[in-house]
Amino acid sequence: MRILVVEDDKDVAGFVVKGLRESGHVVEHADNGRDGLFLAASEPFDAIILDRMLPGGIDGLRILETLRSQRNTVPVLFLSALGQVDDRVLGLKAGGDDYLTKPFAFAELLARVEALTRRGKGEGPATKLTVGDLEMDLLSRGVRRAGQKIDLQPREFLLLEYLMRHAGQVVTRTMLLEGVWDYHFDPQTNVIDVHVSRLRQKVDKPFPTPLIHTVRNAGYMLRSDAP
Amino acid sequence: MGGRAAELDPAGPLPLAHVSPPPARGPAHPRFLHSAALRFAAIYALLFGISALALAFFLWWETAGVLDRETDQTITADVQSLIERWNQGGVPALILTIDNRLAENVDDNAIYLLVDPALERIAGNLAAWPASVPLDRTWSELPIERAGIRSLARVRRYTFPDGLHLLVGRDVEVRAELRDLLTGALLWALLVVVILGLAGAIIVRGLFRRALANVSTTAAAISAGDLSQRVRITGRGDEFDRLSETINEMLERISRLMDGVRQVSNAIAHDLRTPITRARARLEDAALHAKSEADLQAAIERAIADLDGIVAVFQALLRIAEIEAGARRSAFAPFDAVPLLADLVDLYSAVAEEKGISLLLESPDQLPFFGDRELIQQAIANLLDNALKFSPPGGMVRLSAENAGRMIVISVADRGPGIPADDRGRAMERFYRGEAARNTPGAGLGLALVQAIAQLHAGSLSLTDNMPGLKAMLRLPVTVEAVHRPPAAAADA
After folding, report:
1. Is the terminal CB of chain A with fewer CB neighbours within 10 Å at N or C?
2. Looking at the structure, do residues A35 and A106 belong to the same domain, yes or no?
3. Contacts of residue A52 in chain B, CB cutoff 8 Å?
4. Best to test chain B binding among A64, A158, A191, A192 (most B CBs inside 10 Å)
5. How far apart are CA B313 and CA B271, in angstroms?
6. Domain finish residue from A121, A153, A181
7. Quick one: A56 and A27 in the same domain?
8. Is-above-0.80 flag for pTM?
């Protein structure tokens, strides 16, 4: 995937660019708002990682507003030291697709960017999700694995749906908290881990191969090892 | 925050902001013209002068003016009736009437004179036609001499078709004297008005300055650094007292915020130094003594975890400060608290179940509330977090909500070790860690955050003994908005 990183801090930018390249992405980097806007407007990207505060008179918000006014719908993730709730709301209102506050873990950034690019492709209103031998019918709200019916609580269904929609991608705990429960704060205890482990009991335990994998220092990933 | 306005402004100039010269100031007025006190004094003097002039004019109109108009009316009526007499009975009847009128005139102020076309006297009490009466004007005021006494008269002339001239009038000498007297008195009064106006203006200026001095000395003391100063309240309950009260409330709020900032910076100095020191020591130790790459890797990972912990504390502190500053009140909206509680129980029941704790929810069908949904969520989540953290296996945590009059009371009760009565007050301070919390993760900011959220909603957080365990109670007043604005409206907002 082609990803544009607009970030003025050399160390942070270098770290992000290196990490994204190692994950197999093609990365362009701009260290000021002017170049960032020029690149974003003139070349196609699958996602843009945008710092809020940039030198050169054009900040991240202005870049995004300019892009959106030109009907450019490229997914944008804000990366900002402005972490107050109002700043977040402002960034999302301006047309941002996600907002990550500095400091951040690279795994979190990577997971969110990959989730964004998936969202950007727009698969249309699917009525059925399939990962390996796991099937989910979104209309009848039924889940089957290897033909066997699995009974899920409503919240477990939502959790599994989120994981299946992001199959093959790392999904962090905060992404689950935001995406499944719509909570934007950080609970002290490991609530998400407990919910995932309960889901595993139903989805993985009765079957020979696990689908829900733990990714160390990052989160979870739903994937079938079968080709 | 300073850059925010610029960020928000899409119409702003794209290139770097040019440094503009300071705006030229207008021609300088003399300094005293800028004094509000002087302006008020001048306005007072002007208003006083205008009202005094109006009063003088009214007095004149109602005294001298009335007399003038009455005299004119009497003379006109006299002339009319004499003309009628002439119409009915000719010159003899006219002469008779004039003589009768003169005889009946008790006040001896009536003046009548009838002359033939050659201006020879026919009847009346004047010796001769006054030379100063012009033939072409009907009204005039002239000096006369009657029975040897000089006097002033107001007269009206009428010429009959057969050439006779009639002069009817009234002696107005007395009235003229009165008018002169009045004019003099009013002129003197005008002088008094000017003096009183000036004196009043000076007094007004003094009062104005004194009323302001109270506020301005306090403000000066505060800008000099003494934040404990307050504006003196006179106790009269007037507008100045209300202004002083408002200013004092503002000062209270400022000093509370300043205290908050001081507390936070103290907390940062003391409580963040420890984990930072630890992370630093680990890294340095690894740099100096690591024997293998694996050692180094482990040390780095531990240091990252330490830093993440520090960031979490930072974010919690900033969030508390943000909430205490009242900045989040803009996100207030009406919502029903019951689904919110049910969702939280849904989130935490898995954790409770894993620890063998039963988590119970008791709530009515509906709890309309007006506030910040996300913050209320976070407050209750923090209380549930605490309760589950300190509950022994097999214990019970009860989340209950009820509508108590104009309050919503949400309580979280556990059967854990609780907090000793002496420590309960301090438990809501930043960085407090109870004895029982020694070996649990956390920074001691959870309850401080809950309290800040309660206070943002004009409510309170209290901790009581659940015998055994702790009962945390959130009391949140239900404002009018929760009742009058249906929760459906919130979805659109």
Report:
1. C
2. yes
3. 7
4. A191
5. 9
6. A121
7. yes
8. no
The answer to whether residues B385 and B476 belong to one domain is yes
CB of A190 within 8 Å of a chain B CB? The answer is yes
Query: Quick check: is B359 in a domain?
Result: yes
Sort out which chain B residues have CB atoms less than 8 A from A103's CB and list them: 307, 311
User: Which CATH number covers residue A14?
Assistant: 3.40.50.2300
Given a contact cutoff of 8 angstroms between Cβ atoms, the answer to whether B232 and B251 are in contact is no
- Strand locations in B109-160 (E): 110-115, 121-124, 139-146, 149-159
Among candidates B6, B350, B385 on the partner chain, residue whose Cβ is nearest the Cβ of A194: B350
A169 shares a domain with A71? no
Beta carbons of B389 and A105 less than 8 Å apart? no
User: What domain count does chain A have?
Assistant: 2
CA distance A226 to chain B (A): 31
Structural domain includes residue A227:
no
CB–CB contacts below 8 A, A to B: 73
* Residue A103, domain member (yes or no): yes
Q: Given an 8 Å threshold on Cβ–Cβ distance, is A189 in contact with B351?
A: yes
Instruction: State the maximum Cα–Cα separation within chain B, in Å, rounded to a whole number.
Output: 154
With the CA atoms of A60, A66, A67 and A70 taken in that order, what torsion angle do they form, in degrees rounded to the nearest 10?
180
3-class DSSP state for residue B293?
helix
Rounded to the nearest angstrom, the minimum Cα separation between B328 and chain A is: 8
Asked if residue B41 belongs to a domain, the reply is no
Among A62, A185, A198, beta carbon nearest to B10: A62
In total, chain B counts a number of residues equal to 493
Is the CB of A198 inside 8 Å of chain B's CB atoms? yes
Range of A193's domain? 128-222
CA distances in angstroms from B210 to B205, B213, B217, B245, B465, listed in the order given: 9, 5, 11, 17, 55
State whether A183 and B347 contact (CB < 8 Å).
yes
Does B271 share its domain with B334?
Answer: no
| B369 plus B283 within the same structural domain | no
Domain assignment of residue B487, yes or no: yes
Q: Which residue of A188, A190, A194, A202 to mutate against B (max B Cβ within 10 Å)?
A: A188
- Residues B401, B300 within the same domain: no
Residues B273, B414 within the same domain? no
Residue B304 identity:
I
- The number of domains in chain B is 2
Residue B458 identity:
A
Domain that includes residue B278, residue range: 239-322
Q: Which of B330, B382, B370, B399 is nearest to B477 (CA)?
A: B370
Q: Which of B16, B19, B313, B351 to mutate to test the interface with A (most CBs of A within 10 A)?
A: B351
Between A58, A83, A189, which is nearest B385 by CB? A189
Final residue belonging to a domain, choices B322, B337, B369: B322
B346 & B278 share domain:
no
CB neighbour class for B214 (10 Å; exposed up to 12, middle 13-18, buried from 19) = middle
Which candidate from A181, A190, A194 shows the least CB-CB separation from B343?
A: A181
Residues B252 and B350 in one domain: no
- ipTM of the complex, rounded to two decimals: 0.81
Co-location of A213 and A134 in the same domain = yes
Q: Would you give per-residue pLDDT tens digits along chain B (493 residues)? A: 344 444 444 444 344 444 444 444 444 555 555 677 788 888 888 888 898 889 888 888 888 788 888 888 988 898 888 888 888 888 888 888 888 888 888 777 888 888 888 888 888 888 778 777 766 667 888 787 777 777 888 888 888 888 888 888 888 888 788 888 888 888 888 888 889 888 888 888 888 888 788 888 888 888 888 878 888 888 888 888 888 888 888 888 888 788 877 877 777 777 778 788 888 888 888 888 888 889 888 888 888 888 888 888 888 888 888 887 776 677 788 889 999 999 999 899 988 988 899 999 999 988 888 888 888 998 999 999 889 988 888 889 999 999 888 889 999 999 888 788 777 777 777 777 666 665 666 667 888 889 889 988 889 998 888 888 889 999 999 876 655 554 444 444 3
Q: Are residues B248 and B354 in the same domain?
A: no
Let me know whether A132 and A105 are in one domain.
no
Contacts of B181 (CB under 8 A, 6+ apart): none
